[in-house]
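Session log. Operator J.P. requested a structure for one protein chain; no other inputs attached. Running the standard single-chain path with token output.
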Amino acid sequence: YSMDKPEKSSPLAKYHKSIDKKRQLNQQLVDQLQLSLKVPANCPPGFYEMRAVSPQGVSQPIRFVISSLTQVKEEEPNDNIQSAYPLPPLPACVNGQILPGESDIFSFSGKKNESIGIQVYARALIPYLADAVPGWFQAVISVTDSRGRELAYADDYFFQPDPYLLFTPPKDGTYYLTIRDAIYRGRDDFVYRIEMGQLPHVKAIYPLGGNRNDTTEIELMGDFLPYSKLSFNPQSKGYNTLKNNTLTLNELSLLSPPQFALSSLTEVREETMGNDIQEIPRVINGRILKKGESDRYQFHAKQGEQIHISIQARQLGSPIDAAIRIFSPEGKRLKTFDDHPDITQGMQTHHADPYTTFDIPADGVYSIEVYDIQNQYGPEYAYRLILKLPVAHFALRVSPSAISIPPSGTGVFMIHAHRSSAMKQEIRLSLDPTLPGVTLSGTTIAPESDSVVMTLSASGRSRKSNYKQVRLVGKAKIGGEEVIVQAQPAEDMMQAFLNRHLVPTEELLIVSGKGNRMLVESDEADQTIALSSLNPAKIDIPMPLNKWWKTYTQKGQWFVEALAPVTGISAKVTDYNGKAGTLTTELIVENKKDIAQKGNLVFRISVIPSTQKNKKPRFICFSKARPYSFLDEENIK
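Structure written below.
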């Protein structure tokens, strides 16, 4: 369905007719798809990913929630008390959408002193919007009585944009819930879900993690919980730890379960250990309980040792904005460190967890102080202080999570490596399982690289589109052993015109579309391109080779452009050999300091055919990824 040409009889057209006065045309949201989804009765509740599939490929995923609650959908008009949409008996879930300047109002029944939990899911459904500030639907909610008096209000819940409100009715009667955007914006993708009722809600847990081989006693804080403590063992059948450190409490059926980290290190709690760190490596679980409080620990170290010091807190759902100070044996402050960027935390816009490496200047007893830089406190403000010796490890992110390639063409994707400071080894990538007719190019991440562009190429013909779920794994030799890490699929999402985040997804798909283009195989495809700022590098790029393309493009004007993350290189086509199907191209290094010493080069190739002068270049294909390396220019001189 297209908003430009609505069909008058369609359900979507009737829906838009009722809201046309409110809605604003957004070119990014021109097309809409209406579908019917049948959910099996035994489908477990939770977040699921949905994608649209077409002959052109597969879309990025969007989050969809399966719930056992009664589901209702808002109906317009419902923007004042008189037209408020009545909710069924609680617990229930309402689904809605906020349009420009709009507020949605719902009526519900409440009994005196019987509290009701109200949880909004908005950013949890669509994490980032590229063309809206602050980058998501900033929902706020309020509860009023029949006379319009505001009884409760909620905005951010700690650092989470989606509000949660515990409302206790002062008397029996009808109350009104209002949801709107904080600054009265609205558009078609400002969608939300509100769960209401006496539903289990975990506000925080303590500690935030434990040893993977031990049983941990966990304290639960929140509303409508059947218990406040539990014994957790990663190997037990009653509870399970899932990927991304998510702790599933089977008895509670939480839509947003708490995060719980596992480690292989010795784990202690501040309340039982005192202030002396007996040995390193070690994890200290603590929290800031009082105003102005800071937790101080001391450890023995020798000159020349290097210690990695970090905090796990915000990434596990704790609201603490932690910072760390290090003091010498004489009490002199040596170092203060705070926020540390982490590409693996794609849902976080404030990377509040600190990390540093500390070189011991002399033998002695050193002190570490942990505090909240915003002077906040409470039982929810928990942290994990981790001290360990240098260890090489890495994590991988691959984006996009659906890599589209034509049957005889090349698809492009990015691989991002998050390395510890001790991780200096190269990483080699491979598909698991390997796919017949599909070639992975640019399979090495050099020790000095954190992000490289790679390609997947397909050969043969296909009469229809198809897709397959795969894994991308990275292998590195660390300490004489081969370490294998699976790359986490992610979507590279823009927030508010500027910032970008790698948001994790559930699966990695290889998508083959319909087509009949033939690419020339080249012996040079895997050869390293030698770059130098002193002289241009000359390479041959294989091109589509069939009669139609040769006739159409041979006398055209060709363009070659290097793709990010490589910048500072210009490409000039010097010859097109239609018989061999190659573009001879000169690569000129314009700004060496912006280019990693080693990496991959992928080129976007386009042409203005001789029959279409004064036209814009027409995209033809991407080249296969080829490794490059800079020559030793001092020896050349």
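Operator note: Residues 11-19 form the longest helix (9 residues).
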